[in-house]
Specification:
The protein is mainly α. The protein has 20 helices and 12 strands. Catalyzes the attachment of glutamate to tRNA(Glu) in a two-step reaction: glutamate is first activated by ATP to form Glu-AMP and then transferred to the acceptor end of tRNA(Glu).
Length: 473
Amino acid sequence: MSAASSRVVTRFAPSPTGFLHIGGARTALFNWLYARGRDGQFLLRIEDTDRARSTPEATEAILKGLSWLGLDHDGEVISQFERADRHAEVAQELLEKGAAYKCFSTQEEIEAFREAARADGRSTLFQSPWRDADPSSQPDLPYVVRLKTPQDGETVINDEVQGTVRIRNDQLDDMVLLRSDGTPVYMLAVVVDDHDMGVTHVIRGDDHLNNAARQMGIYTAMGWDLPVYAHIPLIHGPDGKKLSKRHGALGADEYQKMGYPAAGMRNYLARLGWSHGDDEFFTDDQAIEWFDLNGIGKSPARFDFKKLENLCGQHIAVAEDAALLQEIEAFLDANGREPLSAEQRDGLLRGMYSLKERAKSFPELLEKAEFILASRPISPDEKAQKALDTVSRGILVKLTPHLQNASWTREELEAAMNRFCEEQGTKFGKLAAPLRAALAGRSVTPSVFDMMLVLGREESLSRIQDQAADGRA
């Protein structure tokens, strides 16, 4: 059975040398969407063969980043390093098949070969004199194991994104499989792991395209089915250059700390280099149903913070209140901020309907929620303080009896306010500013009526009376 016709299995295989890069997060997302849309499996492998740079902290950061993005994987997390014996076993099998050979050339000999090639204007691709040597002539010295790469013809990669890519075999070297200390190289480990894990589709960055040509040699020599390849373009910054620190945040964890909802990030990253008609905003279910490799473009995608914020705002607006509260609490925790009290949690849930609209991130939402999070006595900020001059405080004094006698419904509160404005010969706008300042201590808030309904009669009147007290002469 060929790989393409079996159950779809994709994988994400990061190196644990740092945070989950936003480009890696998109690669993981594409693999997740492709597998989930086909009742397949999405596997996770940590490529921790570089022992000097791999750290448990980086592995934990990657797992946390995937968890925040909601990209669940199937089965146990695979450690590439722990499979070193299996990788070496395959190298030995290739030796026995005659598809690989022991190379005793030293680094000095290899460098001398290259210098001579440069001087003669020839290719500096190393050609080992041990490729076809008689085994009986092998010395008792350290050696590497190299793959016998075909020297004629070409390697053809049928890529789902890049199309047909042809690489002449005389441009490929006899790749090292095992180092002189017997440890396997990354290029061998990747192929063995993908085969053993049953990976049918290798979806990864196009910086691995040349690796595919070299890795295919191992598949062919072992008689293994090739996976379907899809090499996706990298993400660039707004200036068209490769995404780097100068463009802003690079790690998925940074986006969580900035307060972007995971659903908005998934939507934006899916749309970054992949399209489904003109659709910009879509749900996870739609993305899973629609995602296909032929929708991925060949050109690098440009990261656009305005588009990200716009999509995040739309996702906040339609999110379930309880789910939104849970994410807000995770955002606070990620930033080392105080957890919400039970009273604040209840208040946020009651008021979420008035906070979600036009908030593009959790900091924006929490700024609007200050009236819920604050407790008496409210300390108005500088802008709000200007709305609480002597005249305005006097208006609050006169307003209080009207509110005390009103039923605490939106209709009744609006009617009571309108009657009061008519009596005072003023417009509601003149009344709204001091009310905002009294209720929230801020000048930008949800509507006065929403705040009063969320806070309730007793708390609302107490806050108004606190500020009105200074207006009594």
